[in-house]
Amino acid sequence: MAVKSRPRQALVIASVLTLALGATACSGESDSGLDPDSPECAPYTNYQGHDGESVSIYASIRDKEADLLRESWKQFEDCTGIEIDYDGSGEFEAQLQVQVDGGNPPDLAFIPQPGLLARFAQANKLKPMTPELKTIADGNYPADWLKYATVGGQLYGTPLGANVKSFVWYSPKMFTEKGYQVPTTWQDLMTLSDKIAATNQKPWCVGIESGEATGWPATDWVEDLMLRTQTPEVYDQWTTHGIPFNDPRVAQAFEQVGSVLKNPKYVNGGYGDVKSLTTTPFQEGGLPILQGQCTLHRQANIYGNYLPAGTKVAPDGDMYAFYLPTIDPSKGKPVLVAGEFTVAFTDTEATNAVRSYLASGEYANSRAKLGNWITPNNKLDVSTVTQEVDKLSMQLLLDKSAVFRFDGSDLMPAAVGSGTMWKGMVDWINGKDTKSTLDFIEGSWPK
């Protein structure tokens, strides 16, 4: 089991629990003070027997989202006595490789890139699902999602949260005041952008800075436009290198994205010029909407986690979102999705207990009740989803007319998807031409 340093608060708690150990042992309670046989601990019976053990989890989820994660499994910790030591980092992708190479991996990780997951699996660094865990996974998740965590016919992980990325955030109050209508086609969206720009306001605000992962929000733009300018089959060929990265069809999507992100009349509302996109944290990208400094921000449903406390997210509120319109509605409704996959680097019984719980319906509903979260777990009680944009996301996930594709950069080999493509997007925003950018990324594809 990987060992991590614990925060001061955890050490203080540990000291207090050590003093109380005798009383705890006599009462049969876990270290948390809860009786494992109490009714409130009944859902956790199958995970007990590991009192006092610690399981480390490493991921890219930070800030408010990380706080919600910790809250979502608190009762599991209290009832089982297993301490979950969670660490979220903006340098997750790079630092996870460092930890693994250094022989000190976390017990579990939430990996959002199937390409990175596959690299660890092919290097025999991941623990495959046990037959018991696979039974849980097969019963709780659609096969289309499980295939993203399957390598060489072996299942290595289960989905955790899901993201619907094809959204544009806006202020319903501002739209009402200005007389703007929610666009339903790409042309309508560009017409609205031009209308706003004519008032001397930059309509779009964007942030693609994310530590060592800087650039990823711009890849989402390209993926959404690949799905809108090309067929789903071409998108699949692109993500698997069935067509080269510098194919003219990819260049077309880049140019369509550039008509917004590299347009000085369109960006960067509230922050500065085009180059300010690369220095604006993605968490802050859409906040100028609340100050009336921009109007539109393309980001996934998770963006609600980064809005200031008290922001009303609703069709008549301070912020809401609409589906990023397609170019030709007659060709269907493409939806870009993503998510994290829980994988294991160790296989202790405590690790497997946490792994099983995170794949369960009990966990899915525990997390969903806290808001700002959706999941492909079919044991989710949809009525527990209360945040308005999350409801919108679930409507899209359940829409049988929608055509879903997973985040393309996440599907690509890690050297490309979370390497040269991220870097390439930054260089491109900063002025590099499209052909040179695509040639650079194509040249990095593993032979």
Termini distance? 35 Å
- The ordered string of helix (H) and strand (E) elements is HHEHHEHEHHHEEEEHHHHHEEEHHHEHHH
**By helix and strand content, what is the structural category?**
alpha/beta
The helicity comes to: 40-55%
Largest sheet: 6 strands, mixed
Q: Report the CATH architecture of the largest domain.
A: 3-Layer(aba) Sandwich
Task: Indicate the radius of gyration in whole angstroms.
Answer: 23 Å
Per DSSP, what share of the residues sits in E-state strands of 2 or more residues? 5-15%
Count structural domains.
2
**What is the tally of beta strands?**
11
Low-confidence spans: 1-28
Report the CATH topology name of the largest domain: D-Maltodextrin-Binding Protein, domain 2
CATH superfamily of the largest domain: Periplasmic binding protein-like II
